[in-house]
Amino acid sequence: MKVLSVASEVYPLIKTGGLADVAGALPAALSTHGVDMQVLLPGYQQVMAKLRNPVPVIRFDDLLGVRATILASTIDGVDYLVLDAPELFDRAGGPYTDAANADHRDNWRRFAALSRAAANIAEGALDDWTPDIVHAHDWQAGLTPVYMMQGKAASTPTVMTIHNIAFQGQFGPDIFPELGLPQSVFSVDGIEYYGDVSFLKGGLQMATAITTVSPTYAQEIRTPAFGMGLDGLINARADSLHGIVNGIDTDVWDPASDRMIAANYSLAKPKKRQHNRKALAEHFGFGDTDKPVFTVVSRLTWQKGIDVLTELADDIVAMGGRLAVLGSGDKALETALLSAAERHPGDIGLVIGYNEPLSHLMQAGGDMILVPSRFEPCGLTQLYGLRYGNVPVVARTGGLADTIVDANEAATAAEVATGFQFFPVTPDALREALRRAIRTFSQPKAWAQLQNQGMKADVSWDRSALRYASLYTELLTAKSKK
Ligand code: ADP
After folding, report:
1. Which tens digits make up the pLDDT trace of 229-255?
2. Atom of ligand 1 nearest to the CA of 246
3. Which residues have C-beta atoms less than 6 Å from ligand 1?
4. Of 77, 64, 73, which is closest to residue 41 (Cα–Cα)?
5. For residue 327, with 0-12 CB atoms within 10 Å meaning exposed, 13-18 middle and 19 or more buried, which class applies?
6. What tens digit of pLDDT does each residue of 402-459 get?
7. Which of 86, 265, 273, 374 is the most exposed, fewest CB within 10 Å of its CB?
8. DSSP-based three-state secondary structure for 154
9. Domains of the chain, earliest start first
């Protein structure tokens, strides 16, 4: 079965968040289920620099107004198709923002071009490979099913995956004529959204199936509180909606072989974890290492509940804990965390920025990973925490609710607990969870058991890859019956 996956970021070529991890892990996870996946992504500077022996396979003289080439390149067994369009992607900054952190003004054209190219591939533009299924991720790939409906690939099944419904790709109506779509598509049943153009809405409207990254989030986005204006549409399409929890790449994230950490360890040989604890303490300027260290690896935003965490910074220290934060995001939150770190040198440490190796050491050397998100489609850092013995303390929402078993009395007795959950996302509820975690941490046997249960949890792609593969098969079977 041939599947084209379309995403705006794919680890290890380019990453700003969980989407990259997922899009990067799927090809290998699905290959064992007979899926031949190629991954289409934009040729940002960071991506172009990493390509090996790229081969031009499609040339466009006019892809939504720009010249472009699709380059094929296989790296570490993954087949990439890279949209090399210098006018759109050869520029400084991140995938979505410029060096000053402002959205690129032509993001609509950049990602419409990505989707247009995907549709061309679906229509047979490559000599030797035409996908049976097209899998589009998030709003940046949202127009893929829309373009496909207009041409030769209209009957090719499509899957639209929502990694975060808060990001919808909404633009003014003035861009519509530039998209090369018939006027009829600018309607309530198409990509029109309260007078604007919405890329995600278009994808959700036109895709054969919709998935999101956890069963709880699949239910949550059907409600006004989580649906961000699209709950009506999601409800209308509920029969085609599937919640499939993310796995993690257990080769990249394996404490027994991870080269980015200070010392390797495993469930069978946990002792060397201590070296990582020490290395982390040194990195953040902490002194003696016996106090429990709460870690945070996150975008610093309201969604992630970082404001609530910041309010509790003094309490954490008063309770005898430490806090190590790696992240970047809202300036006000960065400033508030910096001032907490200044108030508590040696107990609160902050690294602002994006640092992949440090994010691994945080998991290997921390005692708890804190994820106080107001909403969380799946969340990955709690899964890395499980695998690394960094006990998750999470809000009971979305994928956090699905992947962490709270250490309540029953779960503790049944030896299935893996972390701590709290709800709602308020300072009081979070404080109580931190207190519970610290109390358990002070009982070494109970703590070791909790860490062990987490490290034993299956966080691999095995089950979820099977679910994607089954969904693809279902869609193809349904198509053949038509
Ligand atoms: P989201 O995609 O909403 O940001 P996820 O938990 O799904 O959240 O995924 C976040 C991913 O980004 C994880 O792999 C996490 O380790 C990584 N990450 C987040 N912030 C940083 C950072 N400052 N440095 C390194 N990695 C980070």
Report:
1. 999 999 999 999 999 999 999 999 999
2. 7
3. 17-18, 21, 164, 297-299, 326-328, 354-356, 359, 378-381
4. 73
5. buried
6. 999 999 999 999 999 999 999 999 999 999 999 999 999 999 999 999 999 999 999 9
7. 86
8. coil
9. 2-247+462-481 (3.40.50.2000), 273-456 (3.40.50.2000)
